[in-house]
Amino acid sequence: MKKRNVAGQFAAGPRGWLYFDANSIGAMPKIAPRRMAKLLAEWQALRRRGWSESDWLDAPRRLGDKLAPVIGAKKGSVIVGDSTSVNLHKALAMAAGLRRGRRVIVSEAGTFPTDLYVAQQVARRYRCRLVLVKDPSELDAAIDRRTAVVYLSHTDYRTGHRHDLRAVTRRAHARGALTVWDLSHSAGAVATDLASGDADFAVGCGYKYLCGGPGAPGYLYVAPRLQARVEPAFQGWFGHAEPMAFEPRFRAARGIQRHAVGTPAVAGNVLFEAALDVFTRVNPAELFRKHAALSQLLISLVPEELILASPSDPHRRGGFVAFRHRQAEALVEELQARRVVASVRKPNIVRFGLSPLYHRETDVRELARRLHAMLD
Amino acid sequence: MKKRNVAGQFAAGPRGWLYFDANSIGAMPKIAPRRMAKLLAEWQALRRRGWSESDWLDAPRRLGDKLAPVIGAKKGSVIVGDSTSVNLHKALAMAAGLRRGRRVIVSEAGTFPTDLYVAQQVARRYRCRLVLVKDPSELDAAIDRRTAVVYLSHTDYRTGHRHDLRAVTRRAHARGALTVWDLSHSAGAVATDLASGDADFAVGCGYKYLCGGPGAPGYLYVAPRLQARVEPAFQGWFGHAEPMAFEPRFRAARGIQRHAVGTPAVAGNVLFEAALDVFTRVNPAELFRKHAALSQLLISLVPEELILASPSDPHRRGGFVAFRHRQAEALVEELQARRVVASVRKPNIVRFGLSPLYHRETDVRELARRLHAMLD
């Protein structure tokens, strides 16, 4: 029986503070310090062989399997490790490599900058043109028979607009293109439907709604149907079929493991796993329903000076709700003085990141109360 | 005044155990748990803005500057982050890119497997032939005008043979080639002379003699004279000149920062910095002299059944001393039963990794005593 409420699994912040910056870093699971203490004790005591006798080396796949249901993926299709940006390089290079001969990568002009930097470089390397649409509505027309890859942030980091992954993927596939999704502003808060939506590749970061801790490792999803066809973008020790056989020639591991590269980031994995173990106690579908309810409540309660910048349909929104305000920066500073943490994106966007793991209705009501008190 | 002895800065392992596996994971600095507790408290309390108000984002360069004197580099030429394997991809791709048109990468058949896997892939991408010498003595003849890059493990992971970085680099440069060095089995134990030896690129791992903890981040060195000429191998957010300006086009940061890619691995950096702060208390040259003395002592004391596989000149050895023994595997297991941790590399190599930070003469004498007791 899955529990409905796991808010108690997270460490409380300073008294009286409201934290709505889950889009920047999610809260700390209470168990995290104990898990870390165990790791440090192992390190100290490893007058035995640390690498061979611990569960450190299995972590990338083990964490991937724990993460899979949260992002709508099947076991064996997700591997945890490397930064989001490095995973973007892997995913986009592999997708472009599978569609060699096609000459266009389609993305959005307003996508997250690091995604653009990766796209600019991979496009040069594969002699592709990068076509950037200004608005999601232009996407359909931009995808055609020349398109190699459709490369999108699942949720826009400014407006909170969430793409219909299934519909975009269907369109891309119908025209022979592949899809790469950056789930950073969605995963852990809203449904991402990787398997049911037939996505090809996806990546994301571990430290936002997934609560994996500061600078947590990122992750990579490769659709099972592509796993045997695609060579790893970066060959490395831990993507080898037998890393401990020290073979001179690279032989890719089966399945998702081949996309591992170097030694796992053990400390980062320990913290991330503490959070993933909270996720395994909840039903993802219920969690996403709770997120939708909290965000609808917030929208219904904020003062009218805050103009909704996100879509009004919760199925078209990602992890945060964005509002426009003429003095967004001043507003967020003033909120901080009132012990509310939110975030701003220039010129006029205020974002409230909602975590369905630990935010409660009462937090949202208190946020609205403070907003009203401030703007009155 | 630099201290001579910092052994007390490291946490003691289980009583009676001798740990000579520094080549696998170095010991834990005593301060590490306190530093980690501080990070976790910050995470919990970050009902303030974690990223903008912490020192997390500066860590890659700050740690790089602390590491620089340990590996013979100048400040501003080392960046900490990503795994060793990902850094190998960066370094080799950049070096090959700077020597486009040349068609050969020279390495060693017996170099560490992950280095070979990276070399095989980068060679394919740059249409280079990979020439693998069987013995360091063949290196000179293998480097010629077709050579783009000489790509070597500074210390061989089986024999402990350490290349003469300065001489190899001089030879490579004389023939117009660049050098890429993997310092993993040297850094923190012996001199690596990057700046004085005029190396072009180097990488290494943080968790062996550098004591950065399980799966600590790796690092990348780029010679200052090349920094302005070379574009980053993987464009990413944190290699941008102004990461927080969210510019749509990539503009490389000045200097070594351009080689950062994604969000720093904060937890891994905190542990690594605890170790680097111990290194800043010692004089590297003295440390390396101590290492040479300890390893000479070990060689002089071991039973004659152990045949030295490493060079007899300490300047030609890396962080560990390797011996051949017909029953290497059984010997290492039997040592473990006698509370000595060493490591084996098939078929017949026994390795003892010596850390000049925390190993004392008395540890080496006790190791020799147990070896004699065992083999008598």
Overview of the molecule:
Two copies of one chain form a homodimer. The first copy, chain A, is α/β, with parallel strands linked by helices and 376 residues long. The first copy, chain A, folds into two domains: 7-30 and 283-375, Alpha-Beta Complex (Aspartate Aminotransferase, domain 1); 50-279, 3-Layer(aba) Sandwich (Aspartate Aminotransferase, domain 2). Helix content of chain A is 34%, strand content 14%. Chain A contains twelve helices and 13 strands. The longest helix of chain A is centred in the last third of the chain and has 18 residues, at 284-301. Chains A and B meet through strand 1, helix 1, helix 4, helix 5 and helix 9 of A and strand 1, helix 1, helix 4, helix 5 and helix 9 of B.
Number of strands of chain A: 13
Largest interface: A-B, 82 and 82 residues
Shape of chain A: globular
Mean pLDDT of chain A: 95
Structural class of chain A, by secondary structure, is alpha/beta
Oligomer: homodimer
What is the number of helices of chain A?
12
CATH H-tier superfamily of the largest domain in chain A: Type I PLP-dependent aspartate aminotransferase-like (Major domain)
Q: Name the CATH class of the largest domain in chain A.
A: Alpha Beta
Instruction: Tell me the number of structural domains of chain A.
Output: 2
Estimated helix fraction of chain A: 25-40%
